[in-house]
Specification:
This protein has 9 helices and 9 strands. The protein is of the alpha/beta class. It has one domain: TIM Barrel, CATH 3.20.20.
């Protein structure tokens, strides 16, 4: 199926999920997860109206960036970021959606200052117990360290939270994890920290984005359902 047809179908599903809980579909950003996707198909998605894209690796994006002269596209890093690649990430991306430590945030803030820009970031939260998943565990003091430390950041803007729940064959199995992230967001908002924004709740992927929207997601990260099966890197 053409990428444009996939996008039209996904938007219909987003609208239906939003309607079920009295939300507006325009309040949900559809991010095209373009990791391992070649520039041609990314351009097809852009031509079909996608403006926000997610990449997993700094170098992979750098390798194809020249072929992607899409003037008003937003590029988000959604994969785990090593601190030693913070400078390149801050230069290359509009947003880093996978900040999982105060140390990484400090490096990104310095790199953004050197690049002369304000970098948006999301805090990645580990909502499950899987060892392989990145993020700050729910209830960890590391989250407070990051939230309080952010007061010193002049070139970093914390915009919200991101999470990848444990995979379940039934999409509804992710619902408790989405609720956990939403409740954490609400708790942070209630603290009224002047230097923190919490307007973004990035959760939901190809197999469970409708459940995520029902639980309050403002950004769904869709790859396979949008671009089709991935090519082997």
């Amino acid at each position: 199926m053409p990428v444009s047809d996939n996008i039209a179908l996904i938007r219909q599903r987003i609208a239906a999920a939003a309607a079920r809980v009295g939300r507006k579909p325009e309040d949900v950003t559809l991010m095209g997860v373009s990791k391992t996707v070649e520039p041609g198909r990314i351009c097809q998605a852009y031509d079909a109206g996608i403006r926000v894209f997610g990449e997993n690796r700094v170098q992979e994006f750098a390798d194809k960036a020249e072929a992607l002269n899409l003037k008003d596209a937003e590029w988000h890093l959604i994969g785990h970021l090593q601190s030693n690649k913070a400078k390149k990430a801050a230069e290359s991306f509009h947003s880093v959606d996978s900040v999982d430590s105060l140390r990484l945030a400090e490096r990104l803030n310095l790199a953004a200052e050197q690049a002369g820009k304000i970098l948006n970031v999301l805090i990645e939260i580990k909502v499950g117990t899987e060892e392989a998943k990145a993020g700050i565990p729910v209830g960890s003091p590391e989250l407070d360290e990051l939230l309080h430390g952010a007061a010193a950041f002049k070139n970093l803007q914390i915009r919200g939270l991101m999470a990848i729940p444990p995979h379940t064959d039934d999409p509804a199995g992710a619902r408790p994890y989405f609720r956990l992230l939403r409740d954490l967001r609400d708790t942070i908002v209630a603290r009224n920290l002047p230097h923190i924004q919490m307007d973004v709740l990035s959760m939901g992927m190809s197999h469970d984005f409708e459940v995520a929207i029902e639980e309050g997601s403002t950004c769904v990260r869709v790859g396979t359902a949008l671009f089709g099966e991935r090519l082997k890197p």
